[in-house]
Amino acid sequence: MVVRAIWLCLLMLMTAGQAHAEDGYELWLRYRPVQSAVDLPQRVVLYDESPTGRAAASELQRGLSAMTGRTVSIDSPVKRGIAMNEDPAEARKKQIVLSRNAQPDPTLGAEGYHIETGAVENHVLVTRISANRDIGLLYGAFAYLRQVQTGQPVRDTTDAPRLKLRLLNHWDNLDGTVERGYAGSSLWDWWRLPDLKSPRYVDYARANASIGINGTVLNNVNARAESLTSPYIVKAAALADTFRPYGIRVYLSVRFSAPIELGGLKTADPLDPAVRAWWKAKADEIYAQIPDFGGFLVKANSEGQPGPQDYHRTHADGANMLAAALGDRGTVMWRAFVYKGEVAEDRHKQAYNEFTPLDGTFAPNVLVQVKNGAIDFQPREPFHPLFGAMPKTPLMMEFQITKEYLGFATHLAYLGQYYEETLSADTFERGQKGRTVAQVISGMAGVANIGTDRNWSGSNFDQANWYAFGRLAWNPHASARDIATEWARMTFTTDARFVRPVVDMMMRSRETVADYMTPLGLHHLMATGHHYGPGPWVDNLSRPDWNPVYYHKADKDGIGFDRTAKGSGALSQYDPLAQAAWANPQSMDERYLLWFHHLSWDYKTRSGRPLWDELVLTYDRGARDAAALQDIWAKMQPYIDAERFEAVSANLRIQAREAKGWRDASIAYFQSKSGRALPAGVAPPDHSLDYYKSLKFPFAPGI
Ligand code: BDP
């Protein structure tokens, strides 16, 4: 113990001189000195000469040297053509061995790994990472490093991902802007690709591999046809070459009308032979450049995008045509985020109505990609009714990692807790209990929050959302709290005086945002375009279902969207057992109350208070909780570096001010509808409703 403490002090002193700018660039892969340093291997023995095997060895070398302060060597016996441990001095070093199984281990699949410590070779304890394929060695290396970084004893571990597809979706445009991006510009420097070999692309791949992400869609779902032209395919191929050793396949979003725009055809009808031939030739051209190309992501017949319905064909016709072009080389992810221009139907119902009749008609290499909720990435949404309603179609979950509706990169909202809430919801697919969302999905996509900002995600805490997404895509049954704990330990410090309160704060943070933005199941209250500040009064947009007033329906008598049989009937799209959870306002979780019910202001809530009072008090609590985050954080100063402490403090100041703004503007507006007095002790808004309505944010990012 004493030896370790002295060693750690020495190590800290040694590394203190090396200027580490704590600007967040290193993410959770910081590899700072650890207490267990003296016990850790000094030698990596690599029995796999693939680029991925080498990436695994060099990550171990990088991590172990930084955490122990010692030189860590890589030995490649295969390369040298001789048996390992022939040099007695080398042989006596503690070592970690990376080797592929001679006989495949069926429990590991293609991407799993096994970590085992115990075999003694030449009197030295050896830790062995084994896998069926090289990518398993890389995942195993990161898992081993994670155990060391988080201060745990290295445990024998066997692990494999539960989901096959674990993808980031970049909503990046070819001009370098990022739709709903709050972390700078696009990472992809399309202008200088394919020549540019940015080290940042390697670091991007390392970070993703460390959490098990195995694919990336490079461009925006609102896609330009140009991304399929030959020069852009070559640029995408350069990125694919960089990502390949890290197990990350490249995918592209495609514009359905590309055969017209690029091919000069008169139609993009998916059943037209010339259109089909165009896509097949395009796919062949891509595979000639990117042999392991992942496939296509498609937004069709949604928000003005072209699609098969333009030719009176179905989503399945469109998806299957692209699936045929890819063949068994790749996958089509066809998005279910659709709503028709002319339909007066509750938007909540439209995707279900369009897709459930198609269940069982999609080609085997098609997944339907469904947003977590039926409206649009709101601070809280019930799970999408398509989960559990398409048993014959593989479904891909789409979460937003970027916080379009949760305060961009400035407000602290840990989304791991949100993802967990959705993944653990029971769909009761075909009336069976325990068919949670996690059980019914085949893959997970996260709309990336990554850009050119030095800290990648626009704020230090938003890194946790990228991290949590990856860890849950690997295992959708994992605990959001455990993931937050792991992340905090790797990203900041293992000191419990920091980790405990910070993890508590993270776990509560998204509830706080929901309280001051969209309490009690309210939704879609954001101002036009930027979706940042409040706009519950907005009623002037061309489509009714783009207006917040359409969703809250507040008037002098009450508030809320009736989705029961008396209202839009959207509740009936869930399995009857799932419906039961939300059918009765008296017994349901009130955090979803006004999502499903329109109630009078006098309606008595669980607290015994009338709905009006409850609404105001929830707004008020949200604003107070947001302000309190600053006090919790202030106590963390002794445990972390000044740079990140200050960066987080600044964001929390902004959040506290804006949460108060949300509270005040919302209370002022809803009071203009209810005409009621504020509950006793609640401070009135600082300004008039007209003042809040007059605020404009023309330069908000991400539009
Ligand atoms: C909405 C975004 C919009 C996206 C759209 C989508 O506001 O920018 O294009 O979703 O997912 O949330 O297609």
From TrEMBL:
EC number: 3.2.1.131
Organism expressing this protein natively: Asticcacaulis aquaticus
Subunit-level organization: Homodimer.
Family: Belongs to the glycosyl hydrolase 67 family.
Domain Alpha glucuronidase N-terminal: 27-144
Reactions catalysed, as given in the entry: Hydrolysis of (1->2)-alpha-D-(4-O-methyl)glucuronosyl links in the main chain of hardwood xylans
Record keywords: Carbohydrate metabolism, Glycosidase, Hydrolase, Polysaccharide degradation, Signal, Xylan degradation
Name of this chain's protein: Xylan alpha-1,2-glucuronidase
GO molecular function: hydrolase activity
Domain Glycosyl hydrolase family 67 C-terminal: 458-681
Superkingdom assignment: Bacteria
